[in-house]
Amino acid sequence: xxxxxxxxELKDSYLFKRIAQQVNEYKTENPDAEILRLGxxxxxxxxxxxxxxxxxxxxxxxxxAATFRGYDDAGTGYGFLRSAVSKYYADKGVTxxxxxxxxxxxxxxxxxxxxxxxxxxxxxxxxDPVYPAYVDTNVMNGSRxxxxxxxxxxxxxxxxxxxxxxxxxxxxxxxxxxxxxxTKAQLQLWVDYANETGAVILFDAAYEAFVTDKSLPxxxxxxxxxxxxxxxxxxxxxxxxxxxxxxxxxxxxxxLKSADGISLLALWKRRQTTKFNGxxxxxxxxxxxxxxxxxxxQCRENIAYYLGNAKIIGDALSGLGIxxxxxxxxxxxWFTVPGGDSWAYFGRLLRERNIVGTPxxxxxxxxxxxxxLTAFGSRENTEKAAARLKTQSG
Length: 394
Ligand code: MLT
Hints:
binds D-malate; globular
């Protein structure tokens, strides 16, 4: 056999697996420690009532011969869900056709799988720091990666450098890990650059529901010209707490074509219907309910709860004189670590405060010197973590 040698170029383990392993080792040695997990951005609020009742109804339908469903024929999501997503965008003032929405089991899968439709020797332009799945999937694929620097100088929101060209550009806003959010004017620079250079933007909108500042965009398709250069990838994990349910969607505009006129929507549908058999009917009914008026109102209560947690963490850091970003339009708090070594600080927080965070260096070399905490915990644990942070001695 011959292996994909690009896998050997990866770090030993995925960032969040490495953290989980270190936390488990610590827990084995200190079984009585009450560990507060503010590391991986996993939700803790239960599914909202509108979703539960829709899924219960769908389960009963699956138990009756007349209402049972097998494969989703289209393979790209049931019409009822694609129509609900299209309406969600229409309510933001963005027109997205139902046929341009392809339902999946989440943003992470789509972000990795979409590389199938691009050339093996594609050049990927990826911010640093960044959600590590973008980098790892490109390494697996053998793509050439060019990093664009996020820093205090640009507020961790790099804008195009016209001397650099790439095939695929990754943008995540609100950003994971920094919580920074692009303005419409900044996204316009990216859209213009992508249209001029023939690149495609992969816009990760997984955290769009956390944007509270109405002047900030929540979709790349709010930007003029985006339909000829951008793909939006989104998830219900953070909007509706679907991390354990699994549902997301990717929007590929019909106008998006390669230089020789090939439709990316057609290629993506071809890829998905060949390699993926769709998301369960029960899940899709639950997802549809997320976008109902009641479902959205209930989900927004959970988002307000998480943003309340973010404020508690932010206030604790401010009280210590530690500057931070994020937390207002994002569930992530990004702050400068005392001492500057983020893995060392991770270890100290774990041992001395029993708090798990995510070291900034895990998101790229520009993340060194920073730490990410998530606001997705319970209120009780967040308050405990804030109290423990306040006892920090350095
Ligand atoms: C994170 O902690 O960055 C996210 O939870 C990871 C993810 O959504 O896959």
